[in-house]
Amino acid sequence: MKNKIYQKLSALSLVLLVFSACEQAYFPQPPRAKVAQKTSTLQAAYVSTPPMAITDAYWKTADFLEVPFADLTDLNKNELYANGFLNMTGTYGGKATFNKGADPKLVMKAAYDNSKLYLYMEWVDSDMSPALESAFFSGPTDPLKTDSAGGWTSQGNSDKIALAFEIANASSAAGTFSDKGCAASCHNNKMQPSAGSVDIWKWDLAISEPLGYAVDMMTDATTGISNDAGTSMATRNKVTPGNPRSGPVYEWDGTKQSYTRPDGKTTNLDPAFYLLNKALFTGDVHKGDVVYHHPTYGCNHCHGENGDGVGSFGEATAFASTGFAGKYSRSNIISFSGNEEHTGKQYWQQVPTSSYDDLIAYIKGLGSLPGHYLTTPTGSSANVWSVSNVTRSKVNVIAPHTVYKVLLVRDLSTGNPDDAQFTAPQGKSFPFGVALMDHDGKNHIGSLKQILTFQSK
């Protein structure tokens, strides 16, 4: 009896084995889901659908390059800005000061289609720096400089990432771009090759991210670094543009700053840091200083002698912080100051109405105004689009920040002489360099040479 059972089980097993083989032959299993692989170069895969969103499914499984900053010598450190520019060098000590010394863990991914290149970048930065060259009146001192902070100064810097691609036969004393990467872009301590030219794409949290672009520049042996042709997206908000100690020209006009970015999505821009809808800055800050410190009705009694929020009558809102005054229009300030919710209403009511503009100008100077105003770029300056995970409508510089995620998009070929061209790129490789800046622009950490390879279709 047992032998018959064993014979039947054996026969059944044979049938199942044959059926399984037939199933594999005639009903093949679906391919396994792609898993992201670490690669030694940046691999751009061909895609039929543009991965235009940070959350696009393509980026979740795309192969990635870990950019090796940790093994590099510090680049461009211990550089200070000129007189009148204060507190702008967050990466002054190189790797030791970038992100408080923590590894940025930069990861890059890439894709391309018939017309565009898509570059995804993700890195760690524990705080946000969205203000660049903000206008302060009697602002904070810089511990690295002896500059006076009295009067108007330009203060603060932004977080940035920059990529460099060769346009034509760039070289310097360090060697050629194809051999040494962006080290070939520097000559005599300047971002300027001794021969040839280099294309630079710089994503800047303060001046390019709000409008959805990267700053597109080039550097060559003749003129050095300059913006690409066309209208640039940021203009210095200064009475005298080349003078960091001159006052601002504009302030926010109080209207909603709605803007449609090049990817077709509309965003609202936080006026604390981004100046798009502008009005002339009015009032005399020196006269406002006198009103602010008036012995009877001065704001200093509650808000502090220097706007730090601690006065002889107690504590109140601190005015002296980057971006504070920029987010309030003049009508906002006047309306609230005369409101019952304002505990200092009784003092405000004693201020002569003819002094309102002067006083508000002084308060805005204590709390800073954006150092640039924004306009839609045109021409070659508008070539590189950006998408990011930044919330532009209300930039929160107080809550902990962790990771930047940025996507840059550009046509493979622009036909412009100030751009690198990726014509018929399938199977080709291109050297490039990377620089990261944490609350800085002069000092950075970087990777001199990486390789971008376009895979076959």
Key features?
alpha+beta; Immunoglobulin-like; 2 domains; 3-stranded mixed beta sheet; 15% helix; single chain; 457 residues; elongated; 14-stranded mixed beta sheet
What structural category characterises the helix and strand content? alpha+beta
* Total domain modules: 2
Main CATH class of the largest domain: Mainly Beta
Number of helical elements: 8
How far apart the termini lie comes to: 63 Å
* Main beta sheet: 14 strands, mixed
Q: Radius of gyration, rounded?
A: 28 Å
Poorly predicted ranges (pLDDT <50, ≥5 residues)?
14-18
Approximately how much beta-strand content do the residues carry?
Answer: 25-35%
CATH names the topology of the largest domain as Immunoglobulin-like
Shape assignment: elongated
Helix content: 10-25%
Number of strands: 25
What does this molecule look like?
- By secondary structure, the protein is an alpha+beta fold.
- It has two domains: 267 residues, Immunoglobulin-like, CATH 2.60.40; 86 residues.
- Helix content is 15%, strand content 27%.
- The chain contains eight helices and 25 strands.
- Strands 1, 2, 3, 5, 6, 9, 10, 11, 12, 13, 22, 23, 24 and 25 form a 14-stranded mixed β-sheet that branches. Strands 4-8-7 form a three-stranded mixed β-sheet. A two-stranded antiparallel ribbon has the order 14-21.
- A hairpin with a 3-residue loop joins strand 12 and strand 13.
- Helix 4 packs across helix 8.
- It is elongated.
- About 1% of the residues have low confidence.
